[in-house]
Structure formats: structure tokens, C-alpha cells
Task: inverse folding
């Protein structure tokens, strides 16, 4: 029998109450998970971040040794800044079958289900272990899981497969796009705005670069396509921009952040290479004629690898069997799945909640989705039992 939904909701309320926005420490939330597991006699390993302000966690239930299925979640969530919420985002609230709270969907709901299933896992005689994995800094480039993955097979047991519980409304995901993030910095020359010919307007040149990024986006739409994805092509997006000091000064600097979401089979360097060529051929000559110190610099800031399960993947078949679905799907968002897969752990993505509610104001997960995932975990325990 799956654990009662009240146990899941109680755990979810506790997890939501920890403000684990990526910029903050997650140590209190990890301590809570650790203490909860200890209460059931389960030891866990904490892998601290370099600055010691965050940690990931790895715990195993069942026979020690190799193999087993890892249930992987991230503890961090996105900020609530600038969002209008109908209730306190850090106080779980149930309205009409929906549990509202930051991270309720992405992805504390999954973790609450996993924790609530611990008594059930313990009541079984497992043939192979179930591993509980909790990371940090997933929302800022999937960086927090990397030190933990580096220890799989050495300091930590290597699971034979991983289920990443991102919000898929219980669909089984076997592929996602790759994400590359970039920072472009335009340096021009300051001048009095009455004498603009003496300056190099960094904002204007940044605007030209951004227009080129838009053209790159149009070009990407007709390069590689894959109908399994929505949209079925690679995309680009400028996310933030900052520059200038006053309206009467020709701005010296302007920087903007942008990203590329590439199909797994696409060339991820097409966009940055084309932008660099545009900058060097079309913009820099004009800038340098006025200011020899002018420059355009683009830095690659982060990468979340694409995820593509191998054909015939056992864990994908297992997830399909547990959900009763007959076909897999893909998503356009990034997850830790590509990192696990690259580390030799076959992975599938499947979890409760709808990604449309993730990151948004009034984020919620339905109790029906949590019930569905509890049933998934109960079936998993049954399959792994003697
Ligand atoms: Zn997530």
C-alpha cells in the first residue's frame, strides 16, 4: 500500500518551508532529510559544496553494494522575487486538490513522495538497493550534482539506473535538449552625448549583436529539426541586459546574457561561432576606428548536456512499466539526466507535477499527481523485492 497522502503532504509542507532558492544555503533542508532518514536507521552521505554552504545527499536502502535504482531530486528552487502569489510561497497551502508553494512542483513533491515511501521500502526485502539522491544548484546550471556524480563507483555506490523525478506529469522522458549559457560584454568609449561621434555606444552595438542573435534563432528553426521536441528545433534567447550610466553619456559598457537550447543531435557551437564572426566582421571594425580599445567578448558560462537515453534502455522500459504508459516523450528543459547518463548510469526522467506550474507564481502540484507517483514508487518497491 502506498503511504497515506497526509504523510506526503506533511513532508512536502516541511520541505517547502525551507527557502532553498538557489542563491541560499540548503543545509537546513538537507539536515531535515538526513534526520528523517536517520529516524528510520538509514545513514546518508553528505557531499559539501566547495564553500561549505550547500550539500548534496546520498542514502541507500536495502542490500549494500553495487547496482540499485537511484531516485534523484534537487533541493533548490527558483526565486519568488517579482512574482505575485495568492498565498505565502513558503507555506504549503491546499486549495481544490492543488498544493501551492515554491518548489511544490519542481521538485519537492517528488522528494516528499520518496521520503514518505521510506517505511514501505523498509518493509520489503529488497533484492537491490534504492538510493535517494538530493542535489543543489540544479536551477543554476546543474552544477551541484557534479561532485556527487564524480564519486559514483568510488566513494559512493554506482546505481545501475537513475530516475530523475523532474515534473513530467508522470510521462516518461527519454531525451532533452542541451543548454549553453553565454555572457557577452561590449566595451565602447564614453563621451559627452552632445559629441556622440567621439564615443562608441556600447548599447547600440549590443543591440546589433542581439539582432544577429534573433536572426540566428530564425536560421536555427530551419536547420536540424526533430519532431519529438517542442519546438522541434534549437532555440536562442537573450535573458538579461545591462548597460550605460546616464542619458547624457555615450555608454561605455553593455552586457547581456543569452542561451542556446540545442537538439541533442545539433551542433551547439553554431550560434556562438556565427555571433563571433558577425562581431568581428561587421561590428568591431567600426568600433575600432573610433576607439582602439573597444572590444566584444563572449564567454561560455555554463553547459547542461543534452540527454538521450540509449535505445533499448532498461530504465526507460522500467519507468514505462511502472507508469503504464506505452510511449516515451521528450522535454525542452534541461535536467541532471544527461550528466548521469554520461557517467554510465542509464537514466529516465519521470515525476509528478506539470512543468507549466514550475518556476511560476502560485506554483502547485496536484494531490492526484502525488498519489500517482506514490503508486509508482510502491510498484517499484514491489519489483525490486524478493
Ligand atoms: Zn527542477
Result:
Amino acid at each position: 500500500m502506498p503511504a497515506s497522502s497526509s504523510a506526503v503532504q506533511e513532508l512536502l509542507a516541511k520541505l517547502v518551508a525551507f527557502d532553498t532558492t538557489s542563491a541560499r544555503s540548503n543545509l537546513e533542508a538537507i539536515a531535515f532529510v538526513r534526520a528523517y532518514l536517520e529516524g528510520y536507521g538509514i545513514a546518508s552521505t553528505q557531499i559539501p559544496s566547495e564553500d561549505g554552504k550547500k550539500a548534496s545527499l546520498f542514502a541507500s536502502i536495502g542490500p549494500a553494494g553495487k547496482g540499485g535504482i537511484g531516485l534523484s531530486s534537487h533541493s533548490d528552487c527558483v526565486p519568488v522575487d517579482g512574482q505575485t502569489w495568492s498565498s505565502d510561497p513558503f507555506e504549503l497551502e491546499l486549495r481544490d486538490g492543488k498544493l501551492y508553494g515554491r518548489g511544490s512542483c519542481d521538485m519537492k513533491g517528488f522528494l516528499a513522495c520518496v521520503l514518505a515511501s521510506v517505511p514501505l521500502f523498509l518493509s520489503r526485502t529488497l533484492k537491490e538497493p534504492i538510493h535517494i539522491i538530493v542535489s543543489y544548484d540544479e536551477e543554476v546550471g546543474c552544477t551541484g550534482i557534479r561532485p556527487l556524480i564524480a564519486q559514483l563507483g568510488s566513494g559512493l555506490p554506482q546505481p545501475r539506473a537513475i530516475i530523475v523525478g523532474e515534473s513530467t506529469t508522470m510521462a516518461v522522458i527519454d531525451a532533452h535538449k542541451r543548454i549553453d549559457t553565454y555572457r557577452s560584454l561590449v566595451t565602447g568609449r564614453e563621451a559627452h552625448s552632445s559629441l556622440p561621434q567621439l564615443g562608441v555606444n556600447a548599447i547600440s552595438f549590443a543591440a546589433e549583436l542581439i539582432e544577429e542573435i534573433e536572426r540566428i534563432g530564425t536560421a536555427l528553426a530551419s536547420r536540424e529539426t526533430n519532431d519529438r521536441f517542442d519546438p522541434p528545433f534549437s532555440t536562442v534567447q537573450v535573458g538579461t541586459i545591462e548597460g550605460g550610466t546616464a542619458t547624457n553619456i555615450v555608454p561605455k559598457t553593455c552586457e547581456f546574457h543569452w542561451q542556446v537550447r540545442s537538439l541533442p543531435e545539433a551542433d551547439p557551437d553554431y550560434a556562438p561561432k556565427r555571433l563571433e564572426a558577425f562581431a568581428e566582421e561587421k561590428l568591431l571594425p567600426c568600433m575600432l576606428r573610433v576607439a582602439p580599445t573597444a572590444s566584444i567578448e563572449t564567454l561560455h558560462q555554463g553547459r547542461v548536456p543534452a540527454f538521450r537515453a540509449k535505445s533499448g534502455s532498461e530504465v526507460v522500459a522500467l519507468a514505462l512499466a511502472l507508469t503504464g504508459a506505452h510511449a516515451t516523450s521528450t522535454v525542452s528543459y534541461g535536467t541532471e539526466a544527461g550528466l548521469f547518463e554520461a557517467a554510465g548510469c542509464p537514466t529516465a526522467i519521470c515525476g509528478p507535477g506539470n512543468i507549466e506550474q514550475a518556476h511560476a507564481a502560485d506554483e502547485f502540484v496536484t494531490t492526484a499527481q502525488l498519489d500517482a507517483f506514490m503508486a509508482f514508487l510502491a510498484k517499484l518497491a514491489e519489483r525490486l523485492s524478493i
Summary: The chain has ten helices and 18 strands.
